[in-house]
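Folds abound. A case:
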Amino acid sequence: MTTSHSDKHYKATEKVSESIKQYYRESAEAASHGEPVILATGNFPVELLYAMNVVPWFPENYSALCSARQVAGRYCRIAEKNGYSKTLCSYFKCGLGSILESGGPFGGTLRPKMIVTTRFNCIPHIKWWEILARFYEVPLFVLDGPHVVAAKMEDYHYEYMVSQLEDLIELIEKTTGKPYIQDRFTETLELANEASRYWRWVLDSRKNIPSPITLSDLATDMFVSVVLLGTQKAVEIYRQLYEEVSEKVKMRQGATEEKIRLAWDNIVLWYNLGLFNYFEQHDAAVIYEPYISDTWGGVELNINEPLKSLASKCLNIWANFSLELRAKRYLQVVKEFHIDGVVFHSNRACKPFSMGQIQLAKYLQENGIPSVSFEADMADPAAYADGQVKLRLDAFLELLKMKKGLL
């Protein structure tokens, strides 16, 4: 097994790396001074938590951090030794293992006042958060919603979600003592929208040939959209990223030597982000991924209907799309982003992102779009075989270059 960090192309991405450290340090300090902490799932509307002046903390993101720091494997083994199956989500096993060991980077998981999760994004979320709620002996709120979006969302879907968000606000007020203030919420959403506009522009800039930015930067940059959206820090970082990428676009410069343009399907390998530099070393740029673009892709919220907008943001994500919608989206993206081929990461640890990949690959092939697939795990390096993966990728890249007359 060979893993590595990715080399970054932008100063703004280096600032994101520093902001990650700052976030965990400041969160731990705030908690030590009695500020209420809420553990939330990754696609939960963080804007609401910042508006209510609580400390949001994301177990999934923390597991990704542990993986990037090469300690997730050890924590996964601890969870397995305590009776949890090897086939479970590695985010869950890593997070639980660090809690059972009472350790981890930046002091480990913060003790929460309450825990919130969603039912429609991740299969093990409910049981995972139930275990955490029992461990910490705190209230658990489950935000429910339709699990698979097969067509246009109807008003009753949003009304149902809005009613639950209203119930959640009441529970947060009761549990933490923090009041809901509409003006504060509006200010938070305005900050989120400003940051999201910059972020969406950056993601769409990859339609340019050559692409000014690739997944080697964006895998780090997405932290801001997941964890910091609704803060001034998010606006500052994404504005800087926008300005740097804009210069590349004006000068028609790519992030790397680009002969092949790829899409990446599924969550990235957090312990081996250097794999995206490996693509670049072979003149291939990874310029689209549903995991970021169609999950944390810079959705602008309607200030006049804030809760409905948050409900829409939660529901309209890749993991909640039907197979038919995913297939249609891919055909659209292949055309708009000039994609040459798709790399499917068959993620043993995340079933919602992996289900339907075989059918998608077949559908793409029928439409003249080649793809390759390999098995691995998003957080646990024990499931990754570097030599086997690169052998498959090398053959795929050679095929694409031959197809384009580059060999």
